Amino acid sequence: xxxxxxxxxxxxxxxxxxxxxxxxxxxxxxxxxxxxxxxxxxxxxxxxxxxxxxxxxxxxxxxxxxxxxxxxxxxxxxxxxxxxxxxxxxxxxxxxxxxxxxxxxxxxxxxxxxxxxxxxxxxxxxxxxxxxxxxxxxxxxxxxxxx
Length: 147
Description:
Layout: E1 2-5, E2 10-13, H1 18-28, H2 35-44, H3 47-55, H4 59-63, H5 70-87, H6 96-111, H7 116-129, H8 136-146
C-alpha cells in the first residue's frame, strides 16, 4: 500500500507484489512523474521490464507508456539508473532467501569484473535450472562456467 497525500485528497494505492510498490515509489520520486503516470507505467509493463528499460536506457520503450514523453523517459533513466543499480534490486526474483543468495553471487561476479546485466542474466538462468537450496559457492561456480 502507498498513501499519496495531496492538498485536496488522500489517495491509497494498493499493489499485488512488493516489487510493484517499490518500483512505484521509485517512479514517483522522479520529478514530473506523479502517481497516475507511475500506475500507468506499472499497468503497461512489469517492474522487471521497467528496470531493464531503465538499465538499457531504452527511451522508446518508456515512451510507449501513456503520459510519458521523451523528456520524462530520459529523466526516469537519469534519476533511477543509479538508484536501482546501487540498490541492486532485481524485480524478477523479489523474494526472501533466494534473493540473498542471488545478490551475493551478483556482487561476487561484479567484483571479478563482469558486467552487471550480463551477470544478472546468467545467474537467473542458473537459478531457474537449479534447485532452491543452491548455495552461493555453487551458484558462482555455475555462473562462471556460463560466462
